């Protein structure tokens, strides 16, 4: 007699579910990682909530995750006694996909050429809870939010709808029961009721989870009687607290996947320990590809803060500058209060020192990568270079280090970007500046009349096409004493011999030039002779201090 309400999944959620039901993943085991990861997050949240709200009526005496198997019903239940969800939470968090990138994800998925490409995308976006439907044809979730009386029961078969009803006597936290697909139980490899299978998955994907993951196992005693006992099947060792030789490459990779929700391996792992007055450990990762939202406004930073092994917050902006927002990882500080807030962190001197050290380590790691593993470096720069260049503006302290790890497209070799060091080494005798041109694309730049004289004389020109390039070239004065000089701005001194000739010509054409300047005064500041052009009759140049056309457009779009 309790009211059962049937609701529809939001359209995007429905599409995603369809994908899961017709499982295009090759690796279905990862559903358990997602559920355990949610349970672990829920326990973290409960602990934090009890720090903040002393009046919260919550039981925190034995926080854990538990797996229960029913071999007869063929169900697997993942249970936690964490924060739980209210009825509204369930509707908002499970019935819809709140994550901003989902529409983008589905669009890209339609473009994906094959299964491998789709899988790669799913790895990037992460499907979380819905991955249950890869292995289950029905999922029942019972949940009660800590501090609330009433629990909620949610059920769905992964088609377009789900049901909600009040649940009596629901314990605090969440349990997710999967009714396993019959086809999977025939294959030993996919028998998610088997003890060995569950142990194997947990140890592979979730060993470092800081909460115990318990499994009730059946044992036959000496008389052949079946008894049940509960075992903790993960080691719970905080990976970042171990020294580098105590952890394996595989463990680092799994840990990365856990915190980043990325299914690909990281490009680079950085582990760091500071001892002394302010003690901390850091384990940072550089992903192997840029997230889809790297340049979206609401993009979060990827470093989590722990205090003495206790999770405190995600995307801790005080630990990583914005231009390194793609770096993922964990920092565990020993001497902070568990109540520390974002505001306090922003002003804390120790945190500031910590951030500076982390930044230097990330930059020096890329520097090393450059010389020891050029291919990996090329991947890094292709994926993250445009973000890193923002640091040329925002992080003047590390400007030199950033210029040293940067590379740019250039006219020297269309296929291979050049570093500034290599550019300088190739500079011609008497060349004083590093020449560049900014523009929307390589072809626009190459077909520009400004390029003609430079190409004719064999000068190398950097081809800068990222929007951020317009900005930093104006504020970075030089590299190794060489100024950056736009070939589209101001006077460009190609050859001093030509100067005399130009002066003479200027006199000859003085009358024409002043006539043209007057005629065109509404549109241009000045008309002058140029040594830039070889085949085009005329071109428009910006004054040395003018905005470039792209910047002008940007400012106009911003309404300035
Ligand atoms: P994500 O974990 O990336 O946010 P999921 O699909 O895995 O995405 O989960 C969606 C949301 O549902 C979570 O962010 C969380 O708020 C909520 N949720 C899922 N599982 C649990 C759980 N066991 N306890 C509490 N909340 C949960
Ligand atoms: Mg999740």
UniProtKB/TrEMBL annotation:
Compartments where found: Cytoplasm
Binding site for ATP: 34, 38, 80, 85, 100-101, 124-129, 174, 342
Transmembrane residue ranges: none
SUPFAM superfamilies registered for this protein in UniProt: ATPase domain of HSP90 chaperone/DNA topoisomerase II/histidine kinase, HSP90 C-terminal domain, Ribosomal protein S5 domain 2-like
Pfam family, one: HSP90
Segments forming a coiled coil: none
Keyword Chloroplast: no
Keywords on record: ATP-binding, Chaperone, Cytoplasm, Nucleotide-binding, Stress response
One GO CC term on file: cytoplasm
Alphabetical list of InterPro entries matching this protein: HATPase_C_sf, HATPase_dom, HSP90_C, Hsp90_fam, Hsp90_N, Ribosomal_Su5_D2-typ_SF
Domain Histidine kinase/HSP90-like ATPase: 27-184
Record-linked SMART domains: HATPase_c
GO molecular function: ATP binding; ATP hydrolysis activity; ATP-dependent protein folding chaperone; unfolded protein binding
Region (A): 1-342
Subunit and partners: Homodimer.
Protein family according to the UniProt entry: Belongs to the heat shock protein 90 family.
Function: Molecular chaperone. Has ATPase activity.
NCBIfam families on file: PRK05218.1
Protein name: Chaperone protein HtpG
Gene: htpG
């Amino acid at each position: 007699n309790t009211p059962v309400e049937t609701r529809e999944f939001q359209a995007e959620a429905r599409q995603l579910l369809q994908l899961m039901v017709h499982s295009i993943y090759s690796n279905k085991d990862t559903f358990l990682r997602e559920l355990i990861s949610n349970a672990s997050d829920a326990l973290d949240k409960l602990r934090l909530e009890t720090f903040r709200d002393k009046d919260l009526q919550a039981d925190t005496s034995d926080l854990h995750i538990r797996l229960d198997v029913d071999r007869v019903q063929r169900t697997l239940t993942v249970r936690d006694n964490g924060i739980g969800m209210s009825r509204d939470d369930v509707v908002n968090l499970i019935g819809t996909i709140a994550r901003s990138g989902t529409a983008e994800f589905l669009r890209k998925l339609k473009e994906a050429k094959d299964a491998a490409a789709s899988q790669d995308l799913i790895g990037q976006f992460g499907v979380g809870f819905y991955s249950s439907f890869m292995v289950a044809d029905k999922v029942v979730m019972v949940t009660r939010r800590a501090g609330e009386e009433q629990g909620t029961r949610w059920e769905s078969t992964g088609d377009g709808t789900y049901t909600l009803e009040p649940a009596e006597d629901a314990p605090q936290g969440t349990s997710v029961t999967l009714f396993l697909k019959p086809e999977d139980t025939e294959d030993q490899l996919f028998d998610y009721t088997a003890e060995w299978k569950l142990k194997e998955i947990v140890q592979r994907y979730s060993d470092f989870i800081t909460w115990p993951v318990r499994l009730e196992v059946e044992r036959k005693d000496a008389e052949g009687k079946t008894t049940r006992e509960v075992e903790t099947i993960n080691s719970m060792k905080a990976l970042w607290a171990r020294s580098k030789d105590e952890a394996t490459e595989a463990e680092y990779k799994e840990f990365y996947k856990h915190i980043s929700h990325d299914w690909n391996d990281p490009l680079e792992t950085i582990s760091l320990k500071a001892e002394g007055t302010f003690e901390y450990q850091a384990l940072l990762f550089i992903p192997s590809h840029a997230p889809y939202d790297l340049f979206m406004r609401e993009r979060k930073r990827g470093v989590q803060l722990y205090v003495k092994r206790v999770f405190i917050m995600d995307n801790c902006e005080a630990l990583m500058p914005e231009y390194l927002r793609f770096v993922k990882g964990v920092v565990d500080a020993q001497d902070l209060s568990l109540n520390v807030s974002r505001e306090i962190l922003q002003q804390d001197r120790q945190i500031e020192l910590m951030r500076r050290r982390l930044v230097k380590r990330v930059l020096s790691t890329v520097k090393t990568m450059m010389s020891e593993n050029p291919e990996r470096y090329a991947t890094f720069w292709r994926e993250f270079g445009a973000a890193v260049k923002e640091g040329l503006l925002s992080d003047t302290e590390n400007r030199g280090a950033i210029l040293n790890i940067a590379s740019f497209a250039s006219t020297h070799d269309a296929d291979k970007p050049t570093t500034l060091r290599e550019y300088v080494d190739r500079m011609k005798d008497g060349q004083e500046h590093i020449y560049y041109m900014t523009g929307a694309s390589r072809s626009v730049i190459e077909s520009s009349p400004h390029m003609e004289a430079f190409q004719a004389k064999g000068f190398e020109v950097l081809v800068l096409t990222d929007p951020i390039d317009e900005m930093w070239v104006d504020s970075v004065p030089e590299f190794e004493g060489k100024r950056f000089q736009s070939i589209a701005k101001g006077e460009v001194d190609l050859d001093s011999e030509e100067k005399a000739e130009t002066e003479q010509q200027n006199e000859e054409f003085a009358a024409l030039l002043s006539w043209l300047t007057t005629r065109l005064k509404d549109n241009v500041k000045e008309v002058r002779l140029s040594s830039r052009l070889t085949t085009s009759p005329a071109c428009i140049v910006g004054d040395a201090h003018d905005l470039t056309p792209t910047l002008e457009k940007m400012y106009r779009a911003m309404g300035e």
